[in-house]
């Protein structure tokens, strides 16, 4: 289902207009998935599996791998308040 997509994690301030125009997720970086932890300022850009050259040198992830990264309760992408609830045993 998502074999034709790749996901790239990039610092918010490094995103260029060219990257946004090659994104299949949004052309506005404020609408992209943002990291949740304090002190991080990253977003996830979705591109086609034929990765545009403006992303050369950046790590791309498959759908399964990006889900694994996003659902790591100790990672940058899991909502802080939810991971705190899990750690307390509330959930």
What key attributes describe this structure?
single chain, 91 residues
Explain the overall architecture.
The structure is a single chain. The model has no long low-confidence stretch (mean pLDDT 84). Helix content is 24%, strand content 20%. The protein starts with a strand and ends with a helix. With 91 residues, the protein is an alpha+beta fold.
Topology summary:
Elements: E1 5-11, H1 17-21, E2 33-34, E3 42-48, E4 60-61, H2 63-70, H3 80-88
Antiparallel strand pairs: 1-3, 1-4, 2-3
Number of DSSP strand runs: 4
User: How many domains in all?
Assistant: 1
Largest beta-sheet characterization? 4 strands, antiparallel
Spatial gap, N to C terminus? 31 Å
* Backbone CA Rg: 14 Å
Structural class computed from helices and strand pairing: alpha+beta
Cα shape: globular
> Percent of residues in beta strands?
15-25%
Task: Offer a quick outline of the entry.
The protein is α+β, with helices and mostly antiparallel strands. The chain has three helices and four strands. It has one domain (5-88).
